[in-house]
Amino acid sequence: MAITAAIIRTKLLDTASKNTFLGEEEFSTPEITTAITEALSYWNATQPLVADLEYASADAIPSAYDEPFSKGIIAILLQDKSRLLIRNRQPVAVEGVGIDINARADAYVQLAASLMAEFTQWILSTKRHLASIQIITASPTSGKSVISLRQQTAETNTFSVADDSGNTITVTPYTATLYVKEYASADSALMTKTLTKASATTLTLSTDDDDMNHAGTVFGEVVLVESGVTKYRIPVYINVEPALSSTNSRETLAIGRLRDVLHDRAGENYILATTEFQDADMAKAIINVVDLWNSAPPAVGRFAYTPMTFPEEYIGQWEDAASGYLLKEVANKLMRNAYSPLQGETLDISRKATEYMQLGDMKIKEFTAWARDIKYSLNMASAWGYSNNSSFG
Question: Which residues contact 26 (CB under 8 A, 6 or more apart)?
């Protein structure tokens, strides 16, 4: 329910019948309307200034905020009225007793100060809380799209693509092709598909059940061509979820499994009420761990892998290290937007950033040490001609 002058008047009990001394309403409708506008200004002008948290009118105020906003509006009315009363304070005699008909000004000043302090403190803590959640869950304005598929499954996937500034591209003038590679420098593509246009801003990928025979997170690129001239080359991630019934079934780390490991579901994130980690960040973290393995000493080409071939025996370590990369990714975002918490605040993004960074560093360091030890062991085993790990041959 929108806050109106009538609602505020009812809360003030400001009617002629109840104002026996005045015999009329104390606050005019224009005065109340002005106070509503001023209360909105207090909200919009208070740090942090976040465009998505600004309210253009009383109609936009969430109903859950009606009570604190009403207190702020009443505080503004009492402040304004007390100034008028004080300026016009004049003792008079009634039935031989000296009284000040404007003596209520003192009470108005005290009550207005109390209500205004409560209102401004509520604004500050509420906006900081909302901004903190927005910071944690904000989607990047630009970045790679993720196209999710299922291993050896015929399906249709509709998606949009954006330019480097994050602006959605109108695809109408272009012919569109998707190229998929297991790793960026691969000589041949895993899949090349012509995309159809679902709308002016969306493309459709239709896959057959033999297009993606292996699960994993790999690289893709959408190429937009107009009149024979390539206008856009847009990098994307291709996330292929594993299928147990497929002919090449094996355990691998894809976005769905990593989100399960992190328990990053809207229903489990009671404060955020949404997911915390973006699909693109998850895809990058999955690939980063494989890159870290490949670059860890000793450099042995035989034990270099991609997300589609990384040994399933080590998926637990893969999960931990990918989680570490994600925690550090979010920690960097939080640190850029950190501020000192108010007394009693339960959501401290500065502390959360520090904890995420420390935990992320720990997980990655553990993986690095483990990868080094395992690769030395495998290298020695290879030199002696034996290995007890089926994935290494």
Answer: 12, 14, 19, 81
Q: How far apart are CA 256 and CA 146, in angstroms?
A: 12
Partnered with residue 159 across adjacent β-strands are: 203
pLDDT tens by residue, 179-224: 999 999 999 999 999 999 999 999 999 999 999 999 999 999 999 9
124 contact partners, CB below 8 Å, separation of at least 6: 46, 47, 342
Give the separation between CA 379 and CA 372, rounded to whole angstroms.
Answer: 10
Q: Provide the pLDDT for residue 388.
A: 47
- DSSP structure string for 153-217: --EEEEE--B-TTSPBPP-TT-EEEEEEESSTT-SS-SEEEEEEESSSS-EEEEE-TTS--S-EE
Tell me the helix, strand and coil percentages in the chain, rounded to 5: 45, 15, 40
Token pair 């979010």: residue? 330
From start to end of 95-189, where are the E strands?
97-100, 145-150, 155-159, 175-181
Listed in sequence order, the DSSP H helices in the chain are 5-12, 29-45, 66-87, 104-137, 255-261, 279-295, 315-336, 349-384
Asked if the 147-250 domain carries CATH number 2.60.40.3350, the reply is yes
| Residue ranges of domains in the chain | 5-137, 147-250, 251-393
Copy the structure tokens of residue 291.
Answer: 């890159």
Prior bond to 48 cis, omega within 30?
yes
pTM for this predicted structure: 0.66
Residues paired with 179 in a beta bridge = 192, 221
CB 128 within 8 A of CB 339: yes
State whether residue 225 is helix, strand or coil: strand
Instruction: Name the strand (E) or helix (H) holding 236.
Output: strand 229-241
Residue 13 region by backbone torsions, left for phi larger than 0, else alpha for psi between -120 and 50, else beta = left
Residue 234's contacts (CB-CB under 8 Å, 6 or more residues apart) are 145, 161, 162, 163, 169, 221, 222, 223, 224
User: Kind of pairing, strands 145-150 and 229-241?
Assistant: parallel
% residues pLDDT > 70 (the chain): 85
3 state SS of 227:
coil
In the block, residue with structure tokens 């009403």: 70
